[in-house]
Structures are given as structure tokens and as C-alpha cells.
Design brief:
The chain is an alpha/beta fold. It is 46% helix and 13% strand. The protein contains eight helices and seven strands, in the order βαβαβαβαβαβααβα. It is globular. The protein starts with 10 loop residues before the first strand and ends in a 14-residue tail after the last helix. The relative contact order is 0.11. The model has no long low-confidence stretch (mean pLDDT 97). Bound molecules: NADP nicotinamide-adenine-dinucleotide phosphate (NAP). The site of NADP nicotinamide-adenine-dinucleotide phosphate (NAP) has 29 residues, from helix 1 and helix 6.
């Protein structure tokens, strides 16, 4: 099944669509009727997915093979996204992780984590914004992680990049508060995907019932998006924990707006 008419919903960009969570996003957004621009490094996987989705749904799928952790790949993706006026939804999903202790992590690994999880996500967000602002419409979904909520000893560098994604998305949401542009921070917990191979941690070592199915994670994230949620954490059953977290952070920031040091810091003696 294929057609040449552009989708009335526009084009959804999914980074990291060649596996895991991004692949399921591609499937679900295709089912909703979006045209797609799929980005990742493994072109064979993207091509196979594009063919499959165009067979199953009356949509157009384009692929871009790009290493988003490399300046050239990111520049190519940025050019493509900036030039495409059909884009209405950006899912910044591509991400990588490492469980190496910080003292043993090479500068190259650290640079790659930051380049993909932080720089690429920020640059691609910036690339869609001019058109979204022009139209006063558009949606940005930034895939973070539950380890973005607070430091976690297993993955301080990865967690730090996801804390950036949360903070960036929160700040941007406030910057765009007067617009109709929608933002969502998605915080998966452990989810079935190839990221465990990337980290060298066998999924089987995690025990029964620890990992969420990829489909369940994405379906919950999309339900959260449909419901207008800002933070969607599929595995968090008690919603008040998220509200309290947001309130506590906002209250703390507001309380910092003082020109004088707090009395507990007065000179000793
Ligand atoms: N699975 C979990 O437990 C979990 C938990 C919390 C958050 N997350 C987040 O969910 C997102 C998706 O991860 P996943 O779990 O689905 O892992 P995954 O199966 O490893 O998927 C990662 C995707 O990112 C792409 N990617 C990696 N490096 C890239 C690069 N340099 N340039 C372009 N694309 C690149 C990969 O494609 P190529 O290799 O083909 O480039 C792949 O499509 C990530 O942001 C991750 O941090 C996952």
C-alpha cells in the first residue's frame, strides 16, 4: 500500500528508528497516519522498516542515514529538518548509554554520549522550532529516562545527559508557554531494547518482570501525549510522585531568588 498524497497530519521525524523504542514509535505514528522521516545509522534496517510501513499503511516514509553523534551527520539531519515544511512532530529518541565506571570511561565515549543524547537532541529541537513558531503548532517529544530524575550510581554520565534533557525540555516549555507548541518528556524505566547490548548488559541478567515491553512503553508514552502530559513516566504508577517532584523543583528554584546568603552561611565566630 502506498500513496503520493502528503498526510494531512504532516511528517513525524523519529530519530533512532532502526530499533527498540524508536522503531515502535515509527510503527505507531504510521498507524496514526503520519508520513515519516526515519533517522539512524543502520540504513538497511531503516530501509526495511520504511518498506514494511509503506506496505501496511497509506503513508510516505523517507529515511536518512546519519550518525547524529558526528558533526557531519548532525549537520545533514539539521539541514533536512530545517528545509522540510511538512514536519509537525519531532521524536528525539536516538540515545546511547554506558555502564562503565566514570573513572574508566574514555574521553571518546563521554563525547559520544553527550554528542548524541545532549547536542543532537538540542540542535534538532532548535531546527524544527522556527517553522513551529511560524505556524504556532507542532510537537516535540524528548525521550529521556527515569535516571534523569536524580543521580543513579550505575550510570552517572548517561543519567546526567538525561537530566539535561529533562531540564532543557522544562525550560523550553516555559519559553514557549504563550504558544500552542507541545512538549513532552518521556521517561522510560528499563525497557526491552538493543541498548542493553550496547551497554554489554544481558537483558537476561536483570531478572523476571524488570523490563517493560517496548510496545507497552511507547503506547503509554503516546497515551500521555494525547492526554497533554508534560512528563510521562510509563512505569510510575503513583502519579502524585511526578507532580510533587515538579512542584518541589519549582519551589526550590523560586526560593533561590535572594541576594543575601542564607543565615546558616554567616561568618563563624
Ligand atoms: N531501553 C531502556 O531501558 C531505556 C530506558 C530509558 C530510556 N531509554 C531511552 O530510549 C531511547 C531509545 O533507546 P532504546 O532503548 O530503544 O535503544 P536501542 O534499541 O539501542 O535504540 C537506539 C536507537 O538510537 C540509534 N542511534 C544510536 N546511536 C546513534 C547515532 N550515533 N546516530 C544516530 N542514531 C543513533 C540506534 O540506531 P543505529 O544504531 O542504527 O544508529 C537506534 O535506532 C534512548 O534515548 C534511550 O536512552 C531507554
Amino acid at each position: 500500500m502506498s500513496q503520493v498524497t502528503p498526510s494531512p497530519l504532516g511528517t513525524a521525524v523519529v530519530t533512532g528508528a532502526s530499533s527498540g523504542i524508536g522503531k515502535v514509535y515509527a510503527d505507531r505514528l504510521a498507524a496514526r497516519g503520519y508520513d515519516l522521516l526515519l533517522i539512524a545509522r543502520r540504513g538497511d534496517r531503516l530501509a526495511a522498516l520504511a518498506t514494511e510501513l509503506q506496505d501496511r499503511f497509506p503513508i510516505r516514509v523517507e529515511v536518512l542515514v546519519a550518525d547524529l553523534a558526528h558533526p557531519d551527520g548532525l549537520a545533514e539531519a539539521t539541514r533536512k529538518i530545517s528545509a522540510d515544511s511538512a514536519i509537525t512532530l519531532l521524536v528525539n529518541n536516538a540515545g546511547t548509554s554506558s555502564v562503565e565506571p566514570v573513572a574508566q570511561t574514555s574521553a571518546e565515549t563521554i563525547a559520544k554520549l553527550v554528542a548524541l543524547n545532549v547536542t543532537a537532541l538540542t540542535v534538532l529541537t532548535s531546527a524544527v522550532l522556527p517553522r513551529f513558531l511560524e505556524r504556532n503548532a507542532g510537537t516535540i517529544v524528548n525521550v529521556g529516562s527515569v535516571v534523569g530524575f536524580t543521580g543513579y550510581p550505575w550510570v552517572p554520565i548517561y543519567g546526567g545527559t538525561k537530566a539535561y534533557v529533562l531540564n532543557f525540555t522544562q525550560g523550553l516549555k516555559q519559553q514557549l508557554a504563550e504558544t500552542a507548541i507541545r512538549l513532552q518528556y518521556v521517561a522510560p524505566s528499563g525497557t526491552v531494547s538493543e541498548i542493553w547490548d550496547v551497554m554489554g548488559v544481558p537483558m537476561s541478567s536483570l531478572g523476571e518482570g524488570v523490563l517493560m515491553d517496548t510496545e507497552a512503553c511507547v503506547d503509554a508514552a503516546l497515551r500521555g501525549l494525547d492526554d497533554g502530559e508534560f512528563i510521562t513516566a510509563p512505569s510510575v504508577h503513583d502519579e502524585s510522585l511526578i507532580r510533587n517532584f515538579e512542584e518541589a523543583s519549582t519551589t526550590l528554584l523560586a526560593a533561590t531568588q535572594q541576594s543575601q546568603p542564607a543565615p546558616r552561611y554567616s561568618p563563624r565566630g
